[in-house]
Amino acid sequence: MDKVDIIVIGAGAVGLAIGAAVADKDKELYILEKEEVYGQGTSSRNSEVIHAGIYYPSNTLKADLCVKANPMIYDICEKNKVPYKRCGKLIVANGEAEVKQLEGIIKHAQSIGARDLEMIDKDRIHELEPNVKADAAILSPTTGIMDAHGLMDHYHREARRKAGSDPVVLDTEVTGIKQTKDGYIVEMISGGEPFEIQSQVVINSAGLYADKIAAMTGIDIDKEGYRIHWSKGEYFSLTGKPPAEMLIYPPPPQDAASLGIHSVPDLTGRLKFGPNAFYVDDINYAVESEKEPFWRDVVKYFPTVKLEDLHPEMSGIRAKLQGPGDPVRDFVIRHEEDKGLPGFINLVGIESPGLTSSPAIAEMVAGMVKEYMD
Ligand SMILES: Cc1cc2nc3c(=O)[nH]c(=O)nc-3n(C[C@H](O)[C@H](O)[C@H](O)COP(=O)(O)OP(=O)(O)OC[C@H]3O[C@@H](n4cnc5c(N)ncnc54)[C@H](O)[C@@H]3O)c2cc1C
User: Fold this and answer.
1) What is the pLDDT of residues 191-244, one digit of tens each?
2) Does residue 203 sit in helix, strand or coil?
3) Can you give the pTM of this predicted structure?
4) Which atom from ligand 1 is nearest to the alpha carbon of 350?
5) Owning domain of residue 238
6) What atom in ligand 1 is closest to the CA of residue 47?
């Protein structure tokens, strides 16, 4: 049986970022991915927004890692030719109640460290984005968009360079994990054949299936609050000239299930609106919702957008730890030594802002690995 030092399960943006952070010529590393190409899960089905860290509750990993990672992402993109645009974002308010909501949001965002936020009035909004209808807005100049695949390709190159060979193993699905006296035997089906590999450290970064991987170690995922609830988010694209270059968001809905239907420019100059949010039991990426409810949300801040110009575009699925009606949950990023699993690190519930936070998550996990192995 092959023996290695570190196995990362899942080659999405987070698993690849971790791979890049832990890779070392003196350590044997595998990043196992069930699909034939990496990054085909949630990491390629999202808004590709570089978040500033505005809404997340205080003292959470979501807030701390997002605020920390925002400048890291710009730095990575700049230095490694990953396409990005610091387009900025407006959270717009119409009516007194929404303006009041914005005052609460900016106060909270500043308290958790979000940078350079400013409350702006109608005239300034008109100067910046003349097609936007709003009484007031929060301007977030550090919010932007990136090419998620470009970011993942960068992490992959980094992992390969630091490891001295390519650590990503595709078409390899982890099917079981057995604890031994010096680590774990990871069971897998690779290229249709069963295999086992022994590893000292195992990092579970399996996105939508991270709860199933955690359960393979004997963890009771219901008792620990690790069960993932899938929440689908759909997008509609707009034909014709985009009415704004910045990201335009409404104030977030009270149920905290999503950030509200917002505009998402991409790097090719196209615009989509979304995502909505509803819980699902299976993975099906078809866009099935009616477009009219989307359009009703959009015309509140873009009154010129026409219903007939919206078209079903794509969807993604969130790995949420909170089920319907539950309070907001934080990321779980844990070395499970205290559960009798030394060297086993779980990443569960890595929903938004997971893409933005990926370099800071990777740094955190690399710290856990170093502390354990040294
Ligand atoms: C609609 C939507 C919009 C979003 N918008 C944003 C945004 O604008 N900005 C932002 O920062 N974040 C956003 N996010 C969140 C972001 O996309 C995720 O946090 C991030 O992509 C998670 O990356 P990951 O690597 O954990 O998961 P994934 O990309 O899902 O990767 C997990 C990988 O594990 C593999 N895998 C699973 N099981 C196994 C197994 N048994 N064996 C081997 N491999 C396995 C999968 O095939 C997959 O490739 C959004 C998410 C959604 C759904």
Assistant:
1) 999 999 999 999 999 999 999 999 999 999 999 999 999 999 999 999 999 999
2) strand
3) 0.97
4) 19
5) 89-141+229-320
6) 8
